[in-house]
């Protein structure tokens, strides 16, 4: 997985539930307020600027606020992204390579900060309702700071506030689409899930 695609998938570290017929922004606010941990399976599709499929993958994501997350790709390649609250570790099993970055450098004003962070989401993102599309209510979040790797992130919720999907558009025109299932809010997560020790012999690169 390319570094940009890896960054996209820090992204996504979480989501929600709230009252019936709530707006998408209300659902997001309820999620930030009420969700400390989350676990879900995901299917990820990366599209080019012409909406052609570049890559499909799936796996399991988990997070604990603030700033801890584990994003494990299972198919077609085994890869792992772990945020321990201070650093983010990217492990490519096939390459036997680890890249480590400071948390603030790795996510900044990103969807990871939006979903797994702690604090006022509206201080770093401009939120807008997109209305109903199919059976979901959507919102769009644009980073208040223009520097960064993405233009916008969109979150889709069911009419009862259940998290369903996320879409991310980067500055190169690629769109990453994530569909979540088996969503568990506030499960008990083992602390060791968010600890990463590079395998013996792995090539470690520190940015």
Description:
Strands 7-8-9-10-11-1-2-3-4-5-6-12 form a twelve-stranded mixed β-sheet. The protein starts with a helix and ends with a strand. By secondary structure, the chain is mainly beta. A hairpin with a 3-residue loop joins strand 2 and strand 3. It has four helices and twelve strands. Residues 11-21 have low confidence and may be disordered. The chain has a single domain (3-183), classed as outer membrane lipoprotein receptor (LolB), chain A (Clam), CATH 2.50.20.
What distinguishing features does this structure have?
4 helices; outer membrane lipoprotein receptor (LolB), chain A; 14% helix; 207 residues; mainly beta
CATH superfamily: Lipoprotein localisation LolA/LolB/LppX
Q: Please tell me what the overall shape is.
A: globular
Number of strands: 12
Sheet of most strands: 12 strands, mixed
Q: Can you count the helices?
A: 4
First CA to last CA: what distance?
A: 18 Å
Structural class computed from helices and strand pairing:
mainly beta
Enter the CATH topology name.
Answer: outer membrane lipoprotein receptor (LolB), chain A
Query: Cα-atom Rg, whole angstroms?
Result: 16 Å
With strands numbered from the N-terminus, the spatial order across the biggest sheet is: 7-8-9-10-11-1-2-3-4-5-6-12
- Tell me the strand percentage band: over 45%
What percent of residues adopt helix (DSSP H or I)? Answer: 10-25%
- Averaging pLDDT over every residue, what do you get? 81
Question: Tell me, what is the CATH class?
Answer: Mainly Beta
CATH architecture label name: Clam
Pattern of helices and strands:
HHEEEEEEHHEEEEEE
Whole-number total of structural domains:
1
Unreliable sequence segments? 11-21
């Amino acid at each position: 997985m390319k570094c940009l695609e890896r960054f996209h998938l820090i992204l996504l570290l979480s989501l929600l539930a709230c009252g019936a017929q709530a707006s998408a922004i209300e659902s997001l606010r309820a999620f930030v307020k009420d969700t400390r941990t989350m676990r879900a399976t995901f299917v990820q599709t990366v599209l080019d600027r012409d909406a052609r499929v570049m890559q499909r993958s799936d796996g399991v994501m988990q997070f604990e606020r603030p700033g801890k997350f584990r994003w494990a790709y299972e198919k077609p390649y085994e890869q792992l992204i772990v945020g321990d609250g201070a650093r983010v570790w990217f492990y490519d099993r096939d390459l036997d390579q680890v890249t480590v970055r400071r948390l603030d450098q790795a996510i900044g004003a990103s969807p990871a900060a939006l979903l797994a962070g702690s604090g006022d989401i509206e201080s770093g993102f401009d939120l807008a309702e997109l209305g109903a599309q199919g059976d979901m209510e959507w919102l769009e979040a644009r980073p208040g700071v223009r520097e960064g790797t993405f233009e916008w992130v969109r979150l889709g919720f069911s009419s009862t506030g259940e998290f369903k999907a996320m879409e991310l558009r980067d500055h190169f025109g690629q769109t990453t689409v994530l569909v979540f299932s088996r969503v568990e809010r506030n499960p008990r997560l083992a602390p060791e899930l968010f600890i990463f020790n590079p395998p013996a012999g792995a090539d470690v690169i520190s940015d």
